Amino acid sequence: MTKEKINPYILIGSRINKVRIEKNIDKSVLARALSITDSDVDSIEKGKSKLTMDALFIISKELKTEMNYFLTGIPNSRVILASDILDKYIEAFKFISGLSDKQKQVFSEMLQNLISSSKNSQKK
Hints:
This protein has seven helices and no strands. By secondary structure, the protein is an all-alpha fold.
């Protein structure tokens, strides 16, 4: 039994169609922005036409939706970027390095209590 290959253009096209309809935007708006016909937009939304990154960029701009959503199906509010996480760690280290020795000791004790408390609540 072979696994059926999923056409990514169908997924991307259906997401474009969904967003366009949700935002009540006519196909002709996308067609004008892309310099193509309404039926070409229809082909894109059905996954029959391959999209260039340039075209996807224009579509995302017209639909005011991040390109990432069309490619992954994950709304931006749920995407956590590694750079954002790294920025938070750097911010935390800068904060901790600015503490006095006494403050670092208190902070360390609070952190240990928090970790112990978290482990205890997970066991329950």
